[in-house]
Each structure stands twice: as C-alpha cells, then as structure tokens.
C-alpha cells in the first residue's frame, strides 16, 4: 500500500508529473472541504482581517501539498491546525470582548448626529466619497446631516443609521 501511495502521490519524488499533481489537487480539495467543515461558516463568510489572513495562509499551505513543495500529509495536518486555531480564536473572541477586540478590531464612529468625525475618518483612511457611497447603497440618503450614526465596522463595511425624522 505504501508503494502504491508513493507512486500515485509522488511521495519522496523530487518532481511530480501532471497526473500526480492532479491527484494531489483532488485530494487537497477534498481535505480542504473537510477541514473547513471542522471550522465553521465564519471562516470564509466574513471579511475581517482575522478571517482573510487565515484564507491567505490556508491557501498557501495547501498549495504546497499540491505542488510537492512540502510533504503531503504533514501539510494537510498543518492546514487542519490552522483552521482549529481559527476556531479556537473565534470561540475566545465570542466569550471575551477584550480578545475579540484584539484579533478583530473595534468599530469606528465616522458620523455622529450628522457630524463627520474627520479625525477618525483620516486615521482609518475613509474618504467623504467612501462615506457618501455607503450612504447611497445602505441608507438611500444623500445628506450627511440625515445620518444619526455611521460606523466603520470590524469587517471594513460602513454601516449607516438614518435619523428617525428623515424619510
């Protein structure tokens, strides 16, 4: 059996042929699906820096298993460890606001009672045009004075809460 795996997956070979790499790709795809299912929906469903970083590293690690730049099975295990670490951090973030703020960040108030918070906008590189776009898309309004609050959320989205007396 070991000899069969060595031949099919190119284990121990310095170079992989096209069909060995193709078989590895199929196996890595299947393993990646299983590993992500061990994680949770959040891994690729949200776009916080916390989630994006895992996606980048996860893809990089798994690509090494496909191309043969790293040992096949230890690379799959490393990918599983990354997803489990992500899940552990997500659980800790859920249960402790301090840890959640550290790894995911905090929302930033961009508009308060119709007034721009220019220092916050500048610190977070949010332009007035970015804010106006979010107002049109999410709030359907044109005037900042009609905004009760606008926040730069942890995901990078801008949320808009319209004043109650505005249509």
Briefly say what this structure is.
The protein has about 170 residues and is α+β, with helices and mostly antiparallel strands. Helices cover about 60% and strands about 10% of the residues. Helix 4 packs antiparallel against helix 5.
Structure characterization notes:
The longest helix is centred in the middle third of the chain and has 24 residues, at 72-95. Strand 1 and strand 2 (115-116) form a beta hairpin. The chain has helices at residues 2-9, 18-38, 42-45, 49-67, 72-95, 97-104, 118-123, 128-139, and strands at residues 108-112, 115-116, 147-152, 158-162. It has 8 helices and 4 strands; from the N terminus they run H-H-H-H-H-H-E-E-H-H-E-E. The protein has 2 domains: 2-102, no CATH class; 106-162, bsu07140 like domains (CRO Repressor). Helix 2 (18-38) packs antiparallel against helix 4, helix 4 packs antiparallel against helix 5 and helix 5 packs across helix 6 (97-104). Helices cover 61% and strands 11% of the residues. Strands 2-1-3-4 form a 4-stranded antiparallel β-sheet. The mean pLDDT is 85. The protein is α+β, with helices and mostly antiparallel strands and 167 residues long.
List the keywords.
4-stranded antiparallel beta sheet; single chain; alpha+beta; 8 helices; CRO Repressor; 4 strands; 2 domains; elongated; 167 residues
Secondary structure blueprint with pairings:
Blueprint: H1 2-9, H2 18-38, H3 42-45, H4 49-67, H5 72-95, H6 97-104, E1 108-112, E2 115-116, H7 118-123, H8 128-139, E3 147-152, E4 158-162
Antiparallel strand pairs: 1-2, 1-3, 3-4
Helix pairs in contact: 2-4, 2-5, 4-5, 5-6
